[in-house]
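[Meeting: bench + compute handoff]

Bench side (C.D.) handed over the final construct sequence. Compute side (W.E.) agreed to return the predicted structure before the next meeting so the bench team could plan truncations. Sequence as handed over:
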Amino acid sequence: MNATLILDEAGRVVIPQELRDALHLGAGDTLELESDGGQIILRPMHPTGTMVQEHGVWVFRTGKRLAASVADETLDRLRQERDLPEAPPPSAPLRPGETGRGAPDALESRS
């Protein structure tokens, strides 16, 4: 996005709303300023990340782009973990006379 900004008497500029929305910037956010020759570069500073609610879903924002491959790998891993069958509970060792089917076998005595 390109825009022409005008400095006010105090040396302030207004960042266009469209850009603030795209970068998730709000009042009180910190920006890093870098000057290089005839250029000024502003970078949002999100050192700890922020949680924001978007369309009813909480989203963690770090200020850095996430590669699509990282998102795909994470989703695949979570789906695989979700779809794993639950492991059966560990079984206790059998006692004499038990078959493992719940009830002990009847011991027959011959007289």
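W.E. noted at the follow-up: The chain has two domains: 1-45, 49-84. C.D. will use this when planning the next construct.
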